[in-house]
Amino acid sequence: MRRYLQVLMFLFFIVVLFTGTASAYEKPGVMVSLTRNGKTVKAETSALTVGDFLAERGIEPSAIDKVYPPVVTKIKDGMGIVYTRYFPITIVADGKRMAAAVDGGTVADVIADYSAATGVEYVCVSEGVGGLNVTENSVIELGSVFVKNFTSQSSVPFVSRTVENADVPEGGRKVLTAGADGEKEIVTSATYVGGKETKREVVSEKLLKAPVDEIVEIGTKKPEPAVSVFENQSPLNYDPTPPAEYGSKLTMSATAYSSCYACTGKNPGDYWYGITRSGMKARYGVVAVDPNVIPLNTKLYVEGYGYCVAGDTGGAIKGKKIDLYFDSMDTVNAFGRQSRVVYVLN
Predict the structure, then answer these.
(1) SS3 for 108?
(2) How far is CA 3 from CA 13, 15, 25, 313, in A?
(3) In this structure, which long-range contacts are made by residues 115-118, counting pairs with CB atoms below 8 Å and at least 24 apart in sequence?
(4) Cα distance between residue 262 and residue 296, in whole Å
(5) Which domains does the chain have, with CATH numbers?
(6) pLDDT tens over the chain, length 346 residues
(7) 225 by DSSP, 3-state: which?
């Protein structure tokens, strides 16, 4: 009986010894670091692999999640494990839908990453959402940005400048230098987002040909005072009485003219329009003569016309011919050619 107890105690000692030895050879816990979506913590584990460690922490990686090192990697003391959880989103780029996965961030971050990956600049077509956080199953609509430059030519209008000439009768106008438009090159930039033009602006202008200013001479010389003897005279109030005293008397072929283009070859606004050879303004009482017969500025009295002054000349007025000024073309046309007695006053 005693021997039997000794045997039992010996066996118990052997069991305890081997049990204690097994515990002594059990794998001890090791320290690892886990970085989960950017946040790092340290943890003690007795897991054999990275996958076991993540399961120990209640983490079950999906097919789109990223784990480093791979889940089958054996755990080592001091190991760093990175786990990034991704979630699905949809990107609609220029109308084309595609699935993507992200680990968070903002809409602006997704746009920047997508632009970098494709090599094309994209912007969000929905305003005001660039700073919003991306959530699972978000739909982000993008438009590609395309800039195109256009080159065109445009005229540069010339500027008209006037210079005064005191030696030219007032109202006289003459173009000294003809104006000419210049030319410039314009570069315009057009921005397209998703194929639609969103902005257009001029980015540069280059002068190809400078404009030439028009220079117009304007006369400022005041007309000589009208001869007092026919001041305010008109066909309605001329003095029908010939002068009692005069220097000589001529019988001349008389015609009539006015300031119209048919008579003078000038239109209103033309240089010297309405100005006689002597510088006087054309008006009733100023007549055209041949200076070789009657000197300019000579005071006259014409039968049926009244007191007047020789203030103008004409290409067809040669010899004993006189051209009488009337304001009305009807009067000019009705006058025709007549014989008139002309008194040359002292």
Answers:
(1) helix
(2) 15, 19, 33, 173
(3) 118/93
(4) 23
(5) 30-84 (3.10.20), 87-148 (3.10.20), 150-219 (2.20.230.10), 223-344 (2.40.40.10)
(6) 444 434 344 444 444 444 444 443 445 689 999 998 889 999 999 999 999 999 999 999 988 889 999 999 999 999 999 999 988 999 998 889 988 888 888 888 888 998 999 899 998 887 667 778 888 888 988 989 989 999 999 999 999 999 988 888 777 888 889 999 999 999 999 999 888 888 999 999 999 999 999 999 988 887 655 444 455 566 656 778 888 899 999 999 999 999 888 787 788 877 778 888 888 888 898 999 999 999 999 999 999 898 999 999 988 899 999 999 998 888 899 999 999 999 999 7
(7) coil
Environment class of 139 (CB within 10 Å of its CB; exposed 0-12, middle 13-18, buried 19+): exposed
Query: Which residue in this structure is represented by tokens 């755990």?
Result: 75
